[in-house]
Amino acid sequence: MSLEPAVAGYVAGLIDGEGSIIIKPVTQKQLVSLCYVTNTHRGVLDWLTTTLGMGNVVVSHHPTPSARICYRWCASGRNVRQLLQAVAPFLIIKRRHAELLLAFYGQRQAYKERHPGALRPETLKEPLLSIYSKLRALNRRGPHSTTP
User: Fold this and answer.
1) Cis before residue 127, ω within 30 degrees of 0?
2) Does residue 58 contact residue 46 with C-beta atoms inside 8 Å?
3) Is residue 138 within 8 Å of 99, Cβ to Cβ?
4) How many C-beta atoms lie closer than 10 Å to residue 81's C-beta?
5) pLDDT digits 0-9 by tens, 66-105
6) What residues contact 53, with CB distance under 8 A and at least 6 apart?
7) Which strands form 70-76's sheet, in the order they lie side by side?
8) Which helix (H) or strand (E) holds 68?
9) Please, which residues bridge with residue 19 across strands?
10) Orientation of helix 5-18 relative to helix 42-52, angle to 10°
11) What are the DSSP calls for 77-131, one per residue?
12) pTM (2 decimals)?
């Protein structure tokens, strides 16, 4: 994926400020990488879909008397890898998340070649499990005593 520097910087800013980068088990045999941005302005999320040629926008939170409707743009799988490779130099807050996810992809491919069909979260071996755990710790809610 090739992005103009200004676009890559803006996308990185959205991810830093309003986004998340995660690895999520979807079944016992499958992990998926996700990058999402949540915002109350649907237009900016539609712009992400159009500009990046990936992802989709859904309602994240319905409106309540005290809160506006929230939308979520989400990309998954290989698209996330391509996106993070393009915006990583511009990330500040989520840079470590991106580095871990990209390292996870590299280790995952090597592990997959050695152990076909063994990518369940409970069977991940070091250093794959270490990367997965560090990324989960970065995404943990609440105060962080140390950065993994």
Assistant:
1) yes
2) no
3) no
4) 19
5) 999 999 999 998 899 999 999 999 999 999 999 999 988 8
6) none
7) 19-27, 30-39, 70-76, 56-61
8) none
9) 37
10) 130
11) THHHHHHHHHHGGG-STTHHHHHHHHHHHHHHHHHHHHSTT---GGGPPTTHHHH
12) 0.80
Q: Which of 5, 68, 72 is nearest to 38 (CA)?
A: 72
* Two tokens, residue 13: 């800013």
Written as six digits, the tokens of 85 are 């490779």
Confidence of residue 19 (pLDDT cuts 50, 70, 90): very high
* pLDDT tens for each residue of 25-51: 777 667 788 999 999 999 999 999 999
- CATH superfamily, domain 5-138, is Homing endonucleases (3.10.28.10)
Q: How far apart are CA 43 and CA 45, in angstroms?
A: 5
Query: Terminal CA-to-CA distance of the chain, rounded, Å?
Result: 29
Q: Where are the domains of the chain?
A: 5-138
